[in-house]
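Figure 2 data, in text form.
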Amino acid sequence: MALMRLAVRACASFLAIMPFAVARDSPLIGDWIGTLEAPGQKLRLALHVSQVPNGALRATFDSLDQHASGIPVDDLRLDLNMVRFSLRQAGATFQGKLIGDSIDGEFQQSGLAMKLVFHRGVAEPQKRPQNPVPPYPYVSEDAKFQNRAAGITLSGTFTIPREDPAAPKPHKPPAVVLITGSGPNARDEDVAGHKPFLVLADYLTRHGIAVLRYDKRGIGKSKGDYETATSVEFASDASAAVDYLMSRTDVDHRRIGLLGHSEGGILAPMVAAQRKDITFVVLLGGTGVKGARVVVQQTDAMSRAEGMSEAEIARQHKRVERVVEILEAEPSIPTAAEKVHKEFGYSPEVDRMLIHNDAWSRYFLTYDPATTIEKLKMPVLALIGDLDCQVAADENLAAIAAALKKADNDNFKTVRLPGLNHLFQTAVTGAVSEYVRIEETIAPVALETITQWIRRQTGLEKK
């Protein structure tokens, strides 16, 4: 999310599938909960150990804040008081010391060693008061549509206001496609225990706007290959979502728009610039400057929000800036990695910087969204929270405004929302680690600003 792909990629791959382990009459049997001290964030993890009739142990693993549960564990064993297990397909291991009702240890993945202490117990359910529950006052249905150019089927959810018997006939509502941020996002854009697109779709539909949200290719019920896709392929999927809306007879084809969050704020202009049937665009936490610049700013801001010293931030800034320069200049992924290691050696810090050395990240680093935004003639709304640590509000809003002025677009609005983070939650520091601890999913001021603007652009409300 939220250029979250860049923020959490080093820790996300442990959400892979693995088998079980053996022991008898073990003190490990039961539920354990712990918090992984990952770079830039904290992730709540759970370990569940049970015993089968033959005395063997089976264990499963949950990443609660990434909504991955029931993952089987490899090679769980207890030697004296040392607990070990592995997650082979993710290249991850855990080793810790069993002391009473705690396991004090270390989780290792991709060269990173991260503190992880498990305690007996279960996680308290997270409070997400904005999540809507059925029955809804509108129609919600599953949607499937084709990206014919890619030869894949995408799946999502379509919501539409119930027909008003008193409304003049025919009455068809405007519609909007929601485009998620970076990372393996399903239709609700699940992140840190929140479902931002579920909340947003519900709010928009209750206010007269039909909404299509969908799983990314290769994620959830959508087909295709997520791992090899770049923003170009994801934009193609978003365009296919517009085609689906255009095929429906119950929405107004003259009032179809795009709303993108984070990376989705890059994809929406890419789609809108190629089509003549997009009537409005909303950018939430979208970028207006080149990706390489975003990565360096993001690293500084996230480190500062987590309390890193200014001296350490300055040292890190130079290293990240140099690594990004190497990745931009060297087209070969293996050769780029060699050059980085030659200059900086081998260390967990270097490995963290090399998470940007893949096809998606390389496209992001070199792409300048302003060159596409300059082509947008339709109404545009751009919002960024002033506590956003992933997309700097002032510089990106200024770049978006400059690009739209260059397009001679006289109907756009840029808004810096005070006190909101990259997810548009009311925050304290804007740090990624805060996301999961905040009960609010999207601040009311953000929901109202987005909805009122769309209603005005589509004639549902007077300007």
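Caption note: Confidence is low (pLDDT under 50) at residues 1-24.
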